[in-house]
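W.,

You were right to be curious about this one. When I first looked at the sequence I had no strong expectations either way, so I just let the prediction run and decided to look at it fresh. Below is the sequence, 158 residues in total, followed by the output.
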Amino acid sequence: MKAKIKLDCQEDTISLGKIIGKLVKAHSLITLSGDLGAGKTTLTKGIGQGLGIKRVINSPTFTILKQYQGRLNLSHFDVYRLEGQDDELGFEEIFDSDDVCVVEWSQFIENILPHERLEIILNHEENGRTCIMHPIGQRYEELVKEIINENNCNGYIE
């Protein structure tokens, strides 16, 4: 199953993130992929708002990981700079915690990611962006159904 949502503007991306943040449960993993500027960090900002996080969320490109406290804690990874890195990174401990983990550029650490997760692909389109959600695991399939029901926008499940 996959779901596709049309995002016409940055505000739509934030709104979708807020819905995800309100519906997501503890011990969740969301992976984000897409070209530079596709909206990965913008979506994460919305997720943080949905989790009730008051701090400004920005890309952890140079620090790899930033953590925030809200209704649930958010661990926000940007692993772009880890391409080809095979060393023990210690991320598994965080993935096993109750945090909501959002990983930008997750393809660079695919070998250490838990199998079950919500994969989100953001693509530039002529008139905005598309968000493709690919849930892996029953709990993520249920989450995507809830997101589509809550979103009331140009979203559908394939």
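Here's what jumped out at me. Helices lie at 10-23, 40-50, 91-95, 138-151. And, maybe more interesting for your project: Strands lie at 3-7, 28-33, 65-68, 74-78, 100-104, 117-125, 128-136, 155-157.

Coffee later to discuss?

I.
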